[in-house]
Amino acid sequence: MKIEKQNISNRVLEYLRKQIILGQYQEGDYLVEAALSKELGVSRGPVREAIAKLEAENLVEKHSNGRTVVKRFDIVDIQNLYDSRILLETHALTQIDPEVLKKNKDVFYLFVGQMNKSYQQKQRDIESDLAFHSYLVKLTDNNTLIQLWTSLKEVFRTLIDITSEVTESKQQEIIDQHVRIVEALIAGDLEEGQKLLKEHLQDACHYCCEGKKLNMGRDEYV
User: Fold this and answer.
1) How far apart are CA 114 and CA 107, in angstroms?
2) Are 213 and 222 contacting, i.e. CB atoms less than 8 angstroms apart?
3) Residue 130 CA from chain centroid, whole number
4) CB-based contacts of 19-24 (< 8 A; 24+ apart in sequence)
């Protein structure tokens, strides 16, 4: 029962997070447990847990009167998130022993292979994409970096999901970017690896901004 409850809470969280990022819930809107519970057909417990996590992600805030209010989430917030991710991941590359990278190259190619397999089936493999980057950070053996990246992981899962329509025709290019990053790192070219990783994440940021614009149908985000 505990596992089932957690799954429900995660599903509610993913739904609410996506709606906030896409602007379906706008700045100043209230998130009311009872109303959301009825709307989503779940008990109030999972909704309460989801709202608490949204507050930790800085997507909502709780006022002194106990009411939960949606915070503004705009294009600049996407850019700030990706800027932070670029700084974190490119720095992480400097913390990995080159020999450790070489020993683990098959793991990275496994993630790439899974992304390729999904692409052949006309699907987007968000989990393998995230796992690739997560593993890069994990190899630093730096608990602070790992914790920082993990704290952003779920938000980035939603952001990648939002890009799916925009990146439908670019999947092979995205997969190839991952391959080139690994090849540079295995060759011991840290500077090139950082450059390729930065460009890859800058592209992802651009796709996400376009995805938000497309889903919202608003011209102001050109």
Assistant:
1) 11
2) yes
3) 7
4) 20/54, 20/59, 20/60, 20/70, 20/73, 21/59, 21/73, 21/78, 21/158, 21/159, 21/162, 21/212, 22/162, 22/212, 22/215, 22/216, 23/73, 23/212, 23/216, 23/218
pLDDT tens digit sequence for 158-191: 998 888 778 888 999 999 999 999 999 999 999 9
Segment 18-75, tens digit of pLDDT? 999 988 899 999 999 999 999 999 999 999 999 999 999 999 999 988 899 999 999 9
Residue identified by tokens 């939603």 is 158
Given phi > 0 = left and psi -120 to 50 = alpha, else beta, which region is 122? left
CA angle at 156 for the pair 152 and 162, rounded to the nearest 5°: 155
In the sheet that 60-62 helps form, which strands lie side by side, from edge to edge?
Answer: 30-31, 68-70, 60-62
C-alpha closest to that of 115 among 192, 54, 170, 48: 170
Closest by CA position to 73, among listed 222, 217, 216: 216
